[in-house]
Amino acid sequence: MKKKKAEILLIALILNFAIFGCYESFRKNGVIADRDAEIAELKIYKNIIDSINGFKKQNEINKFNFVKERFIEFNHEVNDSTVLRFIEISEHFKLDSTNEMFNLFVHEIILESGAQQYYQSMHPKEGQIVTSYAGAIGIGQIMPNTAFSFLKRIVDSTEMYNLECEDFNWIINDNGMYSPNNPETRGKIIEWLSNENNNIALWGVIMRYSLNKNNNNVYHALISYNAGGGGLRSFLNSGRDPNTHSYIKGILQKENIVDALIDDNA
User: Fold this and answer.
1) Are 205 and 213 in contact (CB under 8 A)?
2) pTM of the model
3) CA 197: distance to chain centroid?
C-alpha cells in the first residue's frame, strides 16, 4: 500500500515540475498572457487531480476484487457488503499498512470462518451463525468472553458507534463480571457478535490492539489473536520460530490453496 502511495506522490511531483516548467517558459517567452497561462495551469492541475482520483479509484477496485475473489472461493454466497465492510475496517484500523499485512489478514478470515458469518445453503446448519466447537462466533470467530473483555475495558465506544456498531452500553454499565454462569449476559454477547458488522469491527479492534502490543509484528499479533497473549509469550519463550506456529502455517496454507484455485479458474 505504501508503495502505491509513493507512486501517486511521485506522479504528482513529476507533473508539478512539468507544469512549473511550462508555466515559466510561457511567462518568459511571452507566448501567452498571464491570465491565459493561469487558466492553462488550472486545467493541468485539474487533469492531475482527475488522474490521481482515477488512480485511487482503480486501487479501490483492485482491492475489492482481490478480497472478493479470495473470499468467494470459500464462501460462494459472499455479499459485496461483507467485502466492503472488511476493507472499511481494515483501512480504519490500518490493517492494510503493507500488502503483506493485508494479505495475511484476508487469509486469516478465510482460515477462521471461510469468510462466513452464517453457514451457506446446502450446509447441515444452513442459516445458523458460524460457531466453533470452543464457542467462537461469526466471521472473525470471536469468543464471547474475549468480546466482553474488549467491549467493557478496551474499545472506544464512540469510535465503535461511528463505525455503525450496535449499542453495547449494557456491557459497559454491567456491575458484574462475565461468566458462563450468567446466561443472560452470554446470550446478549452472542447476539451482538451475530451481527456481521459488529463482528468484523471487533475483529479489527482486536487485531489493531494485538499489533500495538507487539510492535506491529504481524506474525506475533496473529498468534496472539489465536492463542492469546499468554500463548504467544509461551511460544516465543520456547525459542521457536513464529513461522512454525500452526496458526501462521494455517494462514499461509489457505493462501496457497486460494492462489491455486484462482489460477485454475483463470
Assistant:
1) no
2) 0.81
3) 13
For the CA atoms of 70, 75, 77, 79, what is the dihedral angle to 10 degrees? -50
Determine how many CB atoms are found less than 10 A away from the CB of residue 154. Answer: 10
- pLDDT value, residue 185: 84
DSSP state string for 140-182: TTB-HHHHHHHHHHTS-HHHHHHTTPPP-HHHHT--SPP-TT-
Q: What does the pLDDT read at residue 52?
A: 67
Phi, psi of 153 (to 5 degrees): -120, -20
User: Helices 80-92 and 99-113 sit at what angle, rounded to 10 degrees?
Assistant: 130
Evaluate whether 143 touches 133 at the Cβ level (below 8 Å). no
> What pLDDT shows up at residue 59?
87
**Per-residue pLDDT for 2 more than 50?**
no
Secondary structure of residue 131 in the 3-state scheme: strand
Residue showing cell 501517486:
8
Cell digits of residue 81: 457488503
Residues 95 and 90: their CA atoms lie apart, in Å, by: 5
What does the DSSP assignment read for 179-200?
Answer: -TT-HHHHHHHHHHHTSHHHHH
